[in-house]
Design goal:
By secondary structure, this protein is mainly α. It contains 6 helices and no strands. α2 runs antiparallel to α3 and α3 runs antiparallel to α5.
Length: about 140
């Protein structure tokens, strides 16, 4: 992140860094890959019939979050940052991160009951895969 010159704190490298962070936080999960990732996770976790209700709620939230991520690209991802002022960019960052926080809260609300229903062996797999590159985050 550059601290001076024409890039300034909120331009140049900062915009690129925020865009990269947003991409990682959204999981870089294109909508077309969500079903495959859910199938992978369900298989690896060995979800039982008794765990299906929690799994279904979890999968619905993941699908919803992926759809939302596809349709709600922040201005920094649309190339609109150069035309806006520093306060406008900060407002856009705030809006983006507030939306992301809501996404995380919805996901946590679905993960908590699913995780609680898992056996110890399933939890070990979940700890490794749910937040990893093939997971949901």
């Amino acid at each position: 992140m550059k601290g001076g010159g024409t890039d300034g704190m909120m331009g140049g490298d900062m915009s690129r860094m925020m865009a990269m962070m947003h991409g990682r936080m959204m999981g870089d999960m294109p909508l077309k890959h969500v079903e495959g990732r859910l199938a992978f996770l369900k298989t690896e976790l060995k979800i039982t019939a008794a765990q299906e209700p929690q799994w279904t709620k979890f999968a619905e939230v993941v699908r919803s979050n992926a759809k939302g991520a596809q349709t709600a690209k922040p201005p920094m991802m649309q190339g609109d940052m150069k035309a806006s002022t520093a306060p406008e960019r900060l407002a856009n960052y705030e809006k983006t991160f507030a939306a992301r926080l809501e996404t995380i809260r919805a996901l946590k609300a679905a993960v908590d009951p699913l995780y609680a229903s898992l056996s110890d062996d399933q939890k070990k797999v979940g700890d490794e895969l749910l937040m990893g590159p093939m997971g949901i985050m």
